[in-house]
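Q: Protein A?
A:
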Amino acid sequence: MNFLTLPKRTTGVRKFGITSIIDLGLTIDQLSSILKDYSELIDFAKIGIGTAYITPNLSEKIRLYQNHNVIPYFGGTLFEKCYHQNKLAEFVDFLHSQKVDWIEISCGTIDIPLEERINIIKNLKHEFNVLAEVGSKDSNKALSTEDWINEMYSLLDAGSQYCITEGRQSGTAGIYQTNGQVRMDVFQELTSNVNINRIIFEAPTAKQQMFFINQIGANVNLGNVKPEDVLILEAERCGLRSETFFLED
């Protein structure tokens, strides 16, 4: 029975209002239980950092996600490792062998020039749907606001479906200060200049999630969400938590 007036959420195959979880080692049994109850609340699943390369029963995990209409992809660190070792061709074959059709292009750990990332996206966009991450995992390498905007525009124009704002699992790098606070200069420039529905904000903590929800709305795209926090996040989106209580459409 639905009797409350709540913010309207996107449903089905979402183009925005996306929730992307980070899978850092869920077992098949754990994942099966989560998806049984919450798959309709999850859109993407990042098999985080480089764990996809050593995950037991990887094919089974990928199929489980796909059978529940959740899009799996591998964390950008694995892409960067392959790039660093000149193994991108092998990485592409690996993705095809696992029937994974989304790829993350990032430079969070190693410096990959923007033009090089643009060329990689242009070469791969006909084989994969592309997610491009902006920002460094090193808090000492903070991009200027101008660089954030330039990279976002360039990577989206090159063929990325979405751009992800780096935040790490800790929420202390990329778009965040080391204390976990959002870099407001970057946030304001992004929301003023880039199509907000094509940005996925990494937001691993409830405080960060609620910041973006209150600033942008129930259907902001959020990533690096812990699997166990999926229902809490949906409650936050629906104004069913004190901090988002007065959220409107």
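Q: Protein B?
A:
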Amino acid sequence: MMSMLTGKTVLVTGGGRGVGRAIALAAAEAGANVAVNDLGVSLQGDSTGDSPAHEVVKEIEAMGGKAIALTDSVGNWDAAHSMIETTVKTFGSIDAVINNAGNLRDVIFHKMTEDDFDAVINVHLKGTFNMSRAAAPFFKEQAGGAFLHMTSTSGLIGNFGQANYCAAKLGIVGMSKAIALDMQRFGVRSNAVAPFAWTRMVSSIPNETPEQKKRVEGLMKLVPERLAPFAVAMVSDQAKHVTGQVFGVRNNEIYLFSQSRPIRTAHSGEGWTPETVIDRVLPMFENDFYPLHKSGDVFTWDPV
């Protein structure tokens, strides 16, 4: 991995802590110039007035790498364009954008406010759009580039109290696929990955009941650094043939997720009525209905 990104410039959003920090350091170790974006906010997205991006830059420089800190919000269109432009002016190019910035406003749906919803959508979904859209013209001009977007099993499968987060993370999957389709002719690729890692975001999970304690114990085994090699590989030239895919990384396990396709079909030559839908279609399909699983109901085994 030491020279896989030599001569490349990689921008990592949310790069000051957790998964983002691990990716930023790994990209630098692999030879990339790294733009580390981190606004410096609380878990809920409120400003703390201090960005950890500068500390990550110091770590990269201490290992002999080159890096800059970008402390603007990905949720702001103008700021996103400014950060991409600053990166290009500093290093001469932009070759990969890793959209990792995020926040949480976990609230049960019937109590979720508009602000709870908008705040999460703005950082995850809108932020991913802003940064990707700002980089797209540069990727098009140079006939190449890589996007890697963070999704989540909360969106792919489901979770309690996260309607805002689930919507954003599943929306990112759709956006990633659309980018892959639109930009393929320019040699640009776009993929999504669901990281499993014990970070500041998942550390907010309740830890009170025996079931919750068991879940948290399992999550604490998931270290952010395990995702970094995958991220470096995916934005390297060696993976330039891979686009439009959805992956997962859980410690030493790497997954390729399925994408929505029809699994059952019902046909009626004379068309349907509400009554025949009830009488014929639903009984035909019931054995294949998906249960209301949460992410933890699907990934039940211990991480390895």
